[in-house]
Amino acid sequence: MSDYALVVVGASLGGLAAVSELLAQLPDELDAAVVLAQHRAAEAPRGELERLLQLHTDRKVVEVSDKDPIEPRHVYLAPPDYHVLVEPGSFALSTEARVMYARPSIDVLFESAADAYGERAIGIVLTGANADGAAGLARIKAVGGVAIAQDPATAQAPVMPAAVLKATAVDAVLPVGEMGAFLRSLALTPAGVRT
């Protein structure tokens, strides 16, 4: 069983394809819950993203509700127009002001995950057209968690992963297709023992 408790993923423009590919290769060795903040319109139909992503993974995909417990081997989606905050063992939803013009905000999710799980958190920033996620991934890295960025050269919109690389020293810069193998290697290594 992996020492990592939570994988937080941020995506924006081009995110559906990138997240679908990532979910399809989640390794069995990784028991952590996965939480996704995908920028989407406030009026996006409820349940549609959930349904599309469920096609790519055997793990249960659910949209977060306030006070939901965090369960291993589940994939959680930030609902449209809500920030998701991670607390030890559960979620909270917020309608506070948009961050980087976005709600859900990747930074809000990542910063709360860092505060709640420290070195047991893994953050992944994928394709996107703004800098949301850079500060949050830097916070995860600062508390001893793992920071992963999509290789900007492989992203449909390279601005977001490129912003991450300016903000912090990441543990890996990878095309999405290589992230599953990297996550598997992390799952087989105790948290805090990375080289």
Can you give a write-up of this model?
It is a single chain. The protein is α/β, with parallel strands linked by helices. The chain has helices at residues 15-24, 48-54, 106-117, 134-142, 159-167, 179-187; strands at residues 6-11, 33-38, 60-63, 74-77, 83-87, 90-94, 121-125, 146-150, 172-174. The protein has a 7-stranded parallel β-sheet, with helices on both faces. It has a two-stranded antiparallel ribbon with strand order 5-6. It is globular, with a radius of gyration of 15 Å. 49% of the residues are buried. The model has no long low-confidence stretch (mean pLDDT 94).
Tally the beta strands: 9
Q: In sequence order, what are the helices and strands, one letter per element?
A: EHEHEEEEHEHEHEH
Strand content: 15-25%
Order of strands in the sheet with most strands: 3-4-2-1-7-8-9
State Rg. 15 Å
Helix content: 25-40%
What gross morphology would you assign? globular
Structural category: alpha/beta
Q: How widely separated are the two ends?
A: 20 Å
* Mean of all residue-level pLDDT scores: 94
Individual helix count: 6
Largest sheet: 7 strands, parallel
Which residues sit in consecutive blocks of at least 5 with pLDDT less than 50?
none
